[in-house]
Amino acid sequence: MPPPSQAASTYKILYTFGALPDGNVPAPGPGLLIDSAGNLYGTTIGGGTGPGCGTDSGCGTLFKLTPNPDGSWTESILFNFLGDSATGAFPGGLTFDSSGNLYGTTGTGGPCDDLGCGTVFKMTPNPDGSWTHTTLFDFPGLADGTFPTYGLTFDSAGNIYGSTSEGGTKNCGTIYQLSPTPDGSWTHTVLYNFTCNDSIDGSFPAGGLVLGSSGQLFGTSLRGGNATSCSEISCGKVFVLAKNSSGAWVYHTLYSFTGGADGGAPETGLVLHTGKLYGTTRSGGNLTCASGGCGVLFELSNSNGVWTEQVLHTFEGGSDGAYPVATPVFDAAGRLYSASQQISGGKAFGAVLKGPEVLHDFVGPRNGQYPNSLTLDSSGNIFGTTQGGGLIPCGVNSSFGCGVVFEITQQ
């Protein structure tokens, strides 16, 4: 396969995360949020002032980046996660509601055992510019799900949907709903318990959920698939959860990965665009690229209830990189963007692609390495984060770096 072409673009670092008390290691997944004023919001899974995760590491932060007239950006830490039962630790991706409140999850926290099983939280802006943190739900134990590390999805009635990577009746993950009540509390309902049966539903949902036009929930699981070809690697599934005529939620597998040319281990979230689903897998594809393949960018389309996969790009570990973990994004013109984590056999540390074209190679480490999220604004500018690089040495990541926020403009 010929190497991907290189598109003209300009790369700029907007912010470099530092040692404590700053946040470090931006959370992967759905990407930064952009408000109407052009401010960026995100989380880090480490750093901050929280004492519950070790004096040298921190429990994570929620941050805001504000653009300045001179082109620079100013960081504000809106909240420090403390690692306690009230606030949790290791936050994931964020979601806005229609009133400008922020919602998210923490991987730990709450009343469940020593570390806690996770929380769902809300951040409310105040007139003085501060924000107020409220815990909406503490996951109390195994049966309700544990480790809700991915993003949240709202429906038009204000219900929140999410997934836990573990817990449930088989400790294989859950899909849950939080419904608001008149007194301001939230009611938690487990909509589906994964069974760990690879031929039925697999296990360990990953990447969050996407709400369809009919209220159905699309998602991926890391494990599951063909029992023969996936005996030693995680192949994974794409699934939908939809209500039947009696109002019960029912699970359906849309596609089972084989771990071969079609990919395996879909770790990122899905994108629903013009009735089709798009995503990436961390493994599979070209199996001569590293051990188990370097991943693919895929499309699933529906014809009379049958979903068919088309591989849009096979990562080769060259200038296009390998092991994508950022959720793909579309621009207003329908062009699809993705990011890879690593470039095998060289000094580069991932890439951002527009279709098959490479927009930027991360040569790191000070310019950032291992991109893990992408977001586009209305003008087509690309914003993202890297989980490493930037300031080196940097706290506990002395040789790895604490990560950066970047912008790519196309020429």
Short description:
It is built from no helices and 29 strands.
Q: Care to describe what's here?
A:
The chain is mainly beta and 411 residues long. Among the domains are: 31-139, 6 Propeller (Neuraminidase); 150-261, no CATH class. The protein is built from no helices and 29 strands. The protein has strands at 9-16, 23-26, 33-34, 40-47, 61-67, 73-80, 89-96, 102-108, 119-125, 131-138, 153-154, 160-164, 174-180, 186-193, 203-211, 217-223, 237-243, 249-256, 271-273, 276-281, 296-303, 306-314, 329-330, 336-340, 351-354, 357-361, 369-376, 382-388, 404-410. Strand 7 (89-96) and strand 8 form a beta hairpin. The model has no long low-confidence stretch (mean pLDDT 90).
- Written as H for each helix and E for each strand, in order along the chain, the element string is EEEEEEEEEEEEEEEEEEEEEEEEEEEEE
Oligomer: single chain
Characterize the largest beta sheet: strand count, sense, and whether it forms a barrel: 5 strands, antiparallel
Which overall shape is indicated by the principal axes computed on the Cα atoms?
Answer: globular
Total of helices: 0
The first-to-last residue Cα distance is 26 Å
Mean pLDDT over the residues: 90
The percentage of residues in β strands lies in 35-45%
User: Count the strands?
Assistant: 29
Q: What is the helix fraction of residues, given as a range?
A: under 10%
Q: What structural class do the secondary elements suggest?
A: mainly beta
Q: Flag low-confidence runs.
A: none
Radius of gyration: 20 Å
